[in-house]
Each structure stands twice: as structure tokens, then as C-alpha cells.
Design a protein that fits this description.
With about 400 residues, the chain is α+β, with helices and mostly antiparallel strands. Helix content is about 50%, strand content about 20%. It has a 6-stranded antiparallel sheet, sandwiched between helices. Strands 7-8-9-11-10 form a 5-stranded mixed sheet.
Length: about 400
């Protein structure tokens, strides 16, 4: 029989806490909170969550209601126990009595006995990736003593798992944004150091060399200038190494960084707020596709600057089925978009057509949509290169 499942106030509390979970942008907080929600939602004695680590195993990391530390950091390979069966099947698995169940393997009976658990339910937490959906974590609920998990319990834990998947997606996006911001700041630091300190060292070095050449009759001073010149050379070498370290970034970060820089430049030039929103991971692209996406963003920002009377601009970057998409959206005044569409003599219309032609040659497409109540969106979608062709 189902335990503690006729308590309506529990479900009301669950809905409230579940909504709060969606605002969590930290993976650890999201999953640790999920363990507690699972326990409460299913009327269980314990709830725990295993994170996927590698292609064929999960590791139990977050627990609520456990009595011992036996479950903490327990590795669950595909196919083993309740969680491993979920990994293999991609669907919920439940047993009335874990240690006697014939539908699962029993490598973990010793842990279950230490925790005095009987009935157990495991549900996949399914996330989205560029290559489709996949199990990104496993949610467990367990009872001590007699009882079983019915359909309502399965449905409730599946709801929690769905919300946890959304929370994890938010956490992933937030982390991608933080990484892009850090990489962009590194790029700005690199440029600033090169233009200021690098130029200063070069100037000082040139002056020292000129001065040394005029003091050939003063060996003592010439020697001191020689040591100074060597110190300047060493400082220049250290600066170059530092700049090289600052410039290091993975290929998938290069495109977001460049788009962020264009947003920053647009905002500084026009005073109109502009920001990049990265909607998930994007695989590295070859230079032709990268340059075309950057050109599309430049064109979209130029359009907003010249015609839109915009109060804000958002550039979004994300993966779509088999490719990558970039959009430049502004909140321009009503009619501004139509004026832009009508006025192509300044090259704006030609720029869009040229983008469309370049995208078409790569199997992509470009669209420019003007909303009647104001605002416009320039969108470009490019498929990834065919399999076997180098994307970089």
C-alpha cells in the first residue's frame, strides 16, 4: 500500500518548493534540494540522487534521510541494481523488496541492509544535449519497513525529476555564461596589457639602445645600460608568456567571446544595453561558419543602431538540431522595422541578402522578422559540417 500519499498539504508544499527549485542556478544546490523533495513527494524515508560520471556509471552524491554513510559516493555501473537498470533502460524502475527482487542484480545488497531499506524507486533525470536527450542523473526514493511505491509516487518523482532537469539546464547555462564572461575579461586584459605595458617596454627598450650607442666612450655606463636592456628584454618575454596564457581558450569559447565583444562595443558606441545570452553548448566550428555568424551579429547590431530606435538588444547563441543558431533581437519602436525594410539604399538590405546567400551555400538560412508593435529579430541558422569534414 502507498504510504503517506493522501496528504494534500504535502503536495501543495511540494509544488511550492518545486517552483523554487527552478530558480536555483547551482548544480550542487539543485541536486541536493532534489533529494529532499523526492523524499517528501513520495512519502519516502529517504531520497537520494546519483550524478552521471562517464558513459557507463553513476555516483550517488546527494542524500536526504540516510542513516549511514554507505550510500555516499557509491559507484553504480550501468545494469547494476535499481539505478544501473534505470541507466540501461532510460525509464523508472521500482521493487517492493530490494534484497529479494528478481528483476535486478544484487551487488549493493549490503548497503541496502545497512540502511534497512526495502521498497525502492529510481527515476531518470533526463537532460538535453546537442546530440539529443540523455539521462544526466538518477533520482531514488526508498522505504524502510513494509510498503511499496504506486503509480502516484512514480508520477510525483517523475515531476520532481523533470524540474530538476530544468534546474540543471539553468545551472549549465549560468556556468557557460560565467565562463564566457571570464574568458572575455581575459581577452580584454590581454589587449590592454599588450597596448599599454607592451608598448611601454618596447619604447623604453628602444630608448636604452639609442642611449647606449651614444655612450661607447663610457664603458661603465654602457655596461649598466646593457644590464638594463637585458632586464627589459626579460620583462618583455615574461609579458609575452602572460599574454599567451591569457589568450588560451577552448575553440567552443572563441565564438561566444567574439560575440560578447561585439555586444560590448555596440553598447559603448550607442549607449543601448546589449548582451549575449548563450542557450547551451555549441560545438567548435570552422572559420567560415564562425565568420559568417559573427558577420550576422554585426549586421543585426548595425540594423538596430541605424533604424530600430531600440532600448535594448539581446544576442542569443545556441545549438539547434544538427547545427547552431544566432539571433539578434531588439525592442525598437513600432514602425522602425518597416522603415528599415523599406530603406535598403544604405546597404542594410543588401547586407541581409548577402548573408542569406552565404548561409544558403552552407545549407543554412537567414530571416529578418519585424514585429508590428516594434522590434525586429535577425536570425541565422547554420548546420554543422557533414560527418568526416573538419569542423575547425
Amino acid at each position: 500500500m502507498e504510504r503517506a500519499f493522501d496528504q494534500q498539504h504535502l503536495l501543495d508544499t511540494l509544488l511550492s518548493e518545486r517552483d523554487g527549485l527552478l530558480s536555483v542556478l547551482d548544480r550542487v544546490l539543485a541536486l541536493s534540494g532534489t533529494a529532499r523533495l523526492i523524499r517528501d513527494a513520495a512519502g519516502a524515508d529517504a531520497g537520494f540522487v546519483a550524478d552521471i560520471e562517464g558513459p557507463d556509471k553513476a555516483v550517488i552524491r546527494w542524500l536526504a534521510g540516510n542513516r549511514t554513510d554507505s550510500l555516499q559516493d557509491l559507484v553504480v555501473p550501468v545494469g547494476q541494481g535499481v539505478g544501473g537498470r534505470v541507466l540501461a533502460l532510460g525509464e523508472p524502475v521500482r521493487v517492493r523488496d530490494y534484497v529479494s527482487a528478481s528483476s535486478i542484480t544484487h551487488q549493493f545488497d549490503w548497503v541496502i541492509r545497512r540502511e534497512a531499506m526495502a521498497a525502492m524507486l529510481a527515476v531518470p533525470i533526463v537532460g538535453e544535449r546537442s546530440d539529443g536527450t540523455t539521462t544526466v542523473a538518477v533520482a531514488y526514493a526508498a522505504l524502510r519497513g513494509p510498503g511499496e511505491f504506486g503509480e502516484r509516487a512514480v508520477s510525483a518523482v517523475e515531476d520532481i525529476a523533470a524540474d530538476a532537469a530544468r534546474a540543471l539546464r539553468l545551472a549549465t547555462l549560468a556556468e557557460a555564461g560565467r565562463q564566457t564572461a571570464v574568458a572575455a575579461e581575459r581577452h580584454r586584459m590581454q589587449t590592454s596589457l599588450h597596448d599599454s605595458v607592451g608598448a611601454m617596454l618596447f619604447s623604453i627598450g628602444a630608448q636604452v639602445r639609442d642611449l647606449r650607442s651614444t655612450l661607447v666612450d663610457n664603458p661603465g655606463m654602457s655596461s649598466r645600460l646593457g644590464r638594463l636592456e637585458a632586464d627589459i628584454s626579460a620583462a618583455s618575454l615574461a609579458l609575452r608568456e602572460a599574454l599567451l596564457a591569457l589568450s588560451e581558450s577552448s575553440p567552443e569559447r572563441a565564438l561566444p567571446i567574439e560575440l560578447s565583444e561585439h555586444c560590448r562595443s555596440f553598447e559603448a558606441r550607442t549607449g543601448v544595453p546589449a548582451r549575449l545570452v548563450q542557450l547551451g553548448e555549441v560545438a567548435p566550428l570552422d572559420s567560415e561558419r564562425t565568420n559568417l555568424l559573427v558577420s550576422a551579429v554585426r549586421e543585426g547590431l548595425l540594423n538596430a543602431e541605424k533604424h530600430a530606435d531600440a532600448g535594448a538588444v539581446v544576442v542569443s547563441l545556441g545549438a539547434v538540431d544538427g547545427g547552431v543558431q544566432v539571433a539578434v533581437a531588439d525592442d525598437g519602436a513600432a514602425g522602425a522595422g518597416n522603415r528599415a525594410a523599406a530603406n535598403s539604399s544604405d546597404g542594410c538590405g543588401l547586407g541581409i541578402r548577402m548573408l542569406a546567400d552565404r548561409a544558403s551555400r552552407l545549407g543554412g538560412r537567414v530571416s529578418l522578422v519585424h514585429e508590428e508593435d516594434g522590434g525586429s529579430t535577425l536570425r541565422i541558422m547554420l548546420p554543422y559540417p557533414p560527418v568526416g569534414e573538419d569542423r575547425r
